[in-house]
Amino acid sequence: MTGLGGTPQTAGEILDGIKHQVDRLARAIDAPEQSLPTYARSEDMARPHIEVAGKHMSWVVVERGKEWERRTTDDLDELLYWIFKSVISEMSSRFAAKHPVEGKEFRYPMFKKELELMEALSPAWRSRLIAELGHLLPEAGLSEHDVAES
């Protein structure tokens, strides 16, 4: 990755740029700070962190000294999607626990909130989430109308 004038950016500069984008998107959905990743270091408590090596950006989850998940990409949009899929899933689960819908299972308000928040960030990310959730949406009671709402 290069900065102004074509000079290569340091890993720290790239991380600062990623953090700036994450903070901007987090404000748009009022994401809690503790749900956001850390940068270049792990808290070692299953809170994701972001690493940069050259042009490669990684979303990493470490718990009790064991790396549980690592996803690496050269595409900032892909990294941001991974970050916010995790953040929004956590936010939506908390929302569903506090706002049950009578006659519906827990996943119904959770998935509706996930789709709403993802739409607020990116319609393309919402479409991708719908494709990834697939059969789980109707199993949770969401109709085609619920999924089509934006």
**Molecular shape:** elongated
Beta fraction: 15-25%
- Number of distinct helices: 6
The helicity comes to 40-55%
Tally the structural domains: 1
Report the major sheet.
Answer: 4 strands, mixed
Rg from Cα: 17 Å
The SS-based structural class is alpha+beta
Q: Would you tell me the overall average pLDDT?
A: 93
Number of beta strands: 4
Helix-strand pattern: HEEEEHHHHH
Terminal residue distance: 35 Å
Low-confidence stretches: none
Strand order of the largest sheet: 1-2-3-4
Can you tell me about this structure?
The protein has 150 residues and is α+β, with helices and mostly antiparallel strands. It has one domain (4-148). Helices cover 51% and strands 15% of the residues. The protein has six helices and four strands. It has helices spanning 11-29, 76-98, 107-121, 123-133, 136-139, 144-148; strands at residues 38-39, 49-53, 56-63, 66-73. The chain has a four-stranded mixed sheet with strand order 1-2-3-4. Helix 2 packs antiparallel against helix 3 (107-121). The protein is elongated and about 55 Å long. The protein starts with 10 loop residues before the first helix and ends with a helix.
List the helices and strands and how they pair.
Elements: H1 11-29, E1 38-39, E2 49-53, E3 56-63, E4 66-73, H2 76-98, H3 107-121, H4 123-133, H5 136-139, H6 144-148
Parallel strand pairs: 1-2
Antiparallel strand pairs: 2-3, 3-4
Outline:
This protein is α+β, with helices and mostly antiparallel strands. It is 51% helix and 15% strand. It has one domain.
